[in-house]
Amino acid sequence: MDGISTSVIAAATAALVAGAAYIDGHYNIRRDIRQLRGDKRFGERLQRRCQDLGGYASLYHHLEMTDQGVEGLWFEGRSWTYGQMKTEVDALAEILHRNGVGFGSFVAVFMTNSPEMVFTIIAIAKLGAVPALINIALRSQTLLHCLSVAGASTMVATPDLTVHLMDILDDPVMAKLCISLNVGSFNETSEPLARKPPSRFREIWQDNLITASRHITHTQAPRQLKDIACLIYTSGTTGKPKACSIKNMQFALVSTRVPLDSDNPKHYSTIRIYSCLPLFHGTCLFTALCYAMGTSGTFCLGRRFSASNFSKALVDSKATRMLYVGELCRYLLKAPPSPYDRAHNCTIAAGNGLSGDVWNKFMDRYGIEEIREFYRSTEGLAKFDNFGSGRISAGKVGFEGPIYHYFNEHTYLVRYDTEKEAPWRDPKTGFCAVTKPGQPGEAIARINNIETMSDYLNNDKANQEKIIRNVFKKGDQFQRTGDLLVRHRSGWIHFLDRSGDTYRWQSENVSAGEVREHIGHLVGVHDVTVFGTKLDGYDGQAGAAAITLSVPTLENEEAFAAKLYDALRLRGVTHYQMPRLLRFMHEIEVNATFKHAKTVLQARSWDPEKQVQGDSVWWLDGNVYRRLDKDSWASIKAAKARL
Predict the structure, then answer these.
(1) CA distance linking residue 554 with residue 616, whole number of Å
(2) Which residue has the higher pLDDT, 2 or 174?
(3) Which long-range contacts does 331-338 make (Cβ < 8 Å, 24+ apart)?
(4) By C-alpha distance, which of 313, 275, 379, 295 is closest to 76?
(5) Which of 439, 503, 587, 622 has the most other CB atoms within 10 Å of its CB?
(6) Contact (CB, 8 A) for 394 and 356
(7) What are phi and psi of 88, to 5 degrees?
(8) Better-predicted residue by pLDDT, 169 or 557
(9) H or E element at residue 428
(10) Rounded average pLDDT over 280-290
(11) What is the DSSP pairing of strand 422-423 with strand 398-399?
(12) Would you say 354 and 327 are in contact if contact means Cβ atoms under 8 Å apart?
C-alpha cells in the first residue's frame, strides 16, 4: 500500500461502488440473488411440509394441520373457524360414505362457489376419493363427457344447478346418485323438486350434518403425494375437455408459504384472501383455498363476480389480498366509481393475465400496493413469478437476470418452429436451443419426478404430446406448455401468445378443435376452421370461425347465422367458447399437408369494407350473430363492443 495516497484509494473505492451500482441497476444482480435464495428456502419449507403430511397427504390432512381456532372461511357475512370447518367436513364425509362414496372412487362436483363446495371437496378427500371439479357452465353432451371421463357414479351439486341435470338424467353416462347439498347458502324454495326421481336424488341439509356429526365412525384414508387429489377439466390443446389429474404433491406445493410472505412475516402476517373466481379452476383452488389453509389464513369466498359489488365485498370480508385474472381487473376499471373502491384493507392483488395497460390504472383506482403476477397452468410445471416489483414490471410475468438465468434449470424458453408447431431442433445435433433475448420461444419445464406430475386421466396420447425428450442432451425430458413467451435483454419476461389450436378468452382456455367439431356437425356446414385472433383492447384472443356452407347462398348464410348461437348452446358449447367473429367463405384454403391455412386467415382483415373473394363477416352481439358493418367494426376497434 506504500506510495498510494488515501485520496487515490477513496477515488478507486468510489469508482468501484459506482460501477457495481451501475451493473446492479442494469442487470438487477441483487434481485437474482434474492430470488435464488428465496427458491432455496422455499424448497426447504416444501420438504418440511411434505414430511409433516407423511402418509396422509390429502387436502383433509391440510385442514387438520391448520390452527383450529383461526377463522378459516368467510362467505357472505358468515364465517367458520378451521375447527368448525372440520366438524362440517367430518359430518358430510360420513353421509357421503353411507351413500356409497368409497376409497379411490371419483365424485363429480357440480357446484356454485359456496361453503358447500369447500366442505364437499375436503370431505371427498377424507374418504380417499377424488373430487372431479366440473365447470358449471357446461351443459348437455359436454357435461356428460366430463362425467364419462371420470367414471363418476355419484355427483354432488348445489340446488341452483340441479335443474340443468334434468334433461340428461336418462343418459347411461349420468351419475347414478345425485346429491343436492344446502347448508344455508341457497334459497330452500329455489329448487324444482317435482321432476326429480326420488331414487336418483338425495337432499342434504344442515340438520342432516348436525345429526351425522354425532356419529362419526369413518377416519381419513391414507394418501401419498403421488396419488390423485382432484380432477380439474381443461381443454388442453385440442378436442373435448380433458380431466387433469392434480396430485397431492401439487397441494403441498401451493400450500407452502412463498418467500415474499415468509421473509417479511410482520408485514404479511394477516392473510385474508378474497376470491370470486370459480373454485373449479386452479387459480382459486390453489392460490386461495390451499394457500389459506397452508398458512392458517382466511379464505374469503365470493359466490360470483360482480363488478359493481366487488370493492364492497373486499370491505365486508376484511380481505388483505385478492385474486384476479386479467379480464376481471379490466371489468373493474369499467365499473362506476364506488365509495368502497379505496375503503378496504386489501393491499395485494395476485393472479395472472393482468395486461400492462390495466396494471397501473387498477393499482391507482383501488389502492393496491403490490401486484403478484404469476405464470402457471393447471397441469403445467413451467413457472415464472413477478412479485412485488412495482410499476416498472407492469404487464410482465416474470424476471430472469443473467445470474438467475444461468442457474435456472427448471423452466426454459426454447426456439419455436412455427411450421411444425413444435420446438425447433438443430439439424446437426437434433437438440433444442434456448432463445436469445427478444426472441419468442415456447416455455418448457424439466420433469424431475413423473409420478407426482399432474397429467391427463386415462389419456396417454395427450400426456405423451405434452412431453418432449432429448431436449438439451440424450435422456432428458421436459413438459411442453404450448405458450410462447419472450425474455428481453432487461431480464423481464412477458407472455406473447398460445401456439397451436388453443387460445385464451375470458380467462378460459378455448380448444379450437372442440368448437370446430361442434360447428362441423351442424346441418348445412361443408367445412369450418376455428382459430384465435387478437383484437386491440381485449385481453386474450377472440375466437373466430371461417365457415363454408354446403350451399353458399346469401339466404342460407343469414339463416345459419341466425340459428348458430342457440344450436351451439344445445350442443353444450359455453358462452366463452362461442366464436366472436364469423367469416363465411366459398372455400377455406389448405396448405401442402392439407391442413387449414390458419396463419393466412389470421392475417386477413375483419374490416367489412376490406373483404375480398366474396367473404362476408359477422360478429357476436350478446347472443345473436349480426353482420359486421362499419359502425360495429368501429365499436370493436375502439374496444367498446361487449364481446
Answers:
(1) 10
(2) 174
(3) 331/305, 331/307, 332/307, 332/362, 332/365, 332/366, 333/358, 333/361, 333/362, 333/365, 334/307, 335/307, 335/308, 335/310, 336/308, 338/308, 338/311, 338/312
(4) 313
(5) 503
(6) yes
(7) -65, -45
(8) 557
(9) none
(10) 96
(11) unpaired
(12) no
Amino acid at site 586: H
CA 547/CA 587 separation, integer angstroms: 8
Which residues fall within 8 angstroms of residue 95, CB to CB, at 6 or more apart?
204, 208, 209, 212
What single letter denotes the amino acid at residue 409?
A: E
- Rounded CA-CA distance 264/387 in Å is 13
C-alpha cell, 339: 365509495
3-state secondary structure of 458: coil
Q: Distance (Å, rounded) from C-alpha 320 to C-alpha 328?
A: 18
Which residues touch 563 (CB under 8 Å, ≥6 apart)?
Answer: none
CB-neighbour burial class of residue 563 (10 A; exposed 0-12, middle 13-18, buried 19+): middle
Contact assessment for residue 82 and residue 308, using Cβ atoms and an 8 Å cutoff = no
Q: Retrieve residue 506's grid coordinates.
A: 375470458
Give the pLDDT score at 115: 99
Buried residues in 106-131 as b, exposed as e (16+ CB within 10 A): bbbbbbbbbbbbbbbbbbbbbbbbbb
| DSSP E strand stretches across 488-622 | 492-498, 502-505, 508-511, 525-533, 542-549, 581-584, 616-621
CA distance 31 to 45: 21
Cβ pair 278, 136 in contact under 8 A: yes
Q: Mean of the pLDDT values across residues 382-404?
A: 91
Which pTM value belongs to this model?
A: 0.86
Which amino acid type is present at position 412?
Y
User: Is pLDDT of 500 > 90?
Assistant: no
Give the residues across from 455 on adjacent strands.
Answer: 245
Q: Write out pLDDT tens, residues 119-153.
A: 999 999 999 999 999 999 899 999 999 999 999 99
Instruction: Compute CA distances 445 → 177, 411, 413, whole Å.
Output: 40, 4, 9
Q: Are 397 and 373 in contact, with CB atoms under 8 Å apart?
A: yes
Which of the residue ranges 28-37, 240-249, 512-521, 597-606 has the most confident prediction, judged by mean pLDDT?
Answer: 240-249
SS3 label, residue 38: helix
Please write the tens of the pLDDT for every residue from 543-574: 999 999 989 999 999 999 999 999 999 999 99
Residue written as cell 375502439? 638
More confident residue, 270 or 298: 298
H runs (alpha helix) in 574-629? 598-603
Backbone angles phi, psi at 253, to 5 degrees: -65, -50
> What is the 3-state secondary structure of 122-153?
HHHHHCCCEEEECCCCCCHHHHHHHHHHHCCC
DSSP 577: G
> What is the chain's mean pLDDT, rounded?
91
